[in-house]
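sry for the spam today, last one i promise. struct tokens for design, 133 residues
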């Protein structure tokens, strides 16, 4: 399998805006710098930002989104992500696109705890083959 410079599988051709378009109307929690967060409906997606609960969140900032999904297929890669002003998180690789990456942090009450991160100057990540594969 061909890998990226970050050790991850090659990304899909999907952009962050395209991925978020499929989420409009859903309720999400977005983690922001300083321990702040916003939870609510995603109502708009634009080329440089999206809107949750009336708050504009620009792609070129530090954030991640809880997607929480029922069925998630992961690939055999562990991912370590550092998000400036938020912290470090780990999980199993779900997918990536041109400017985003998704990881699964495990199952809680039958729901996968999937997190979506932008790939920008505030996010650094690296994949390693899972030891369980």
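last one done:
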């Amino acid at each position: 399998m061909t890998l990226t410079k970050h050790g991850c599988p090659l990304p899909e051709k999907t952009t962050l805006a395209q991925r978020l378009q499929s989420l409009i109307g859903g309720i999400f929690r977005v983690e922001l710098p300083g321990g702040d967060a916003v939870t609510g409906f995603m109502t708009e997606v634009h080329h440089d930002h999206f809107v949750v609960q009336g708050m504009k969140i620009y792609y070129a900032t530090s954030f991640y989104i809880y997607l929480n999904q029922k069925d998630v297929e992961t690939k055999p890669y562990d991912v370590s992500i550092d998000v400036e002003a938020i912290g470090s998180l780990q999980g199993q690789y779900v997918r990536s696109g041109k400017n985003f990456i998704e990881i699964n942090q495990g199952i809680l009450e039958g729901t996968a705890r999937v997190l979506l991160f932008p790939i920008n100057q505030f996010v650094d990540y690296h994949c390693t083959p899972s030891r369980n594969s």
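The radius of gyration is 14 Å. ok im logging off now
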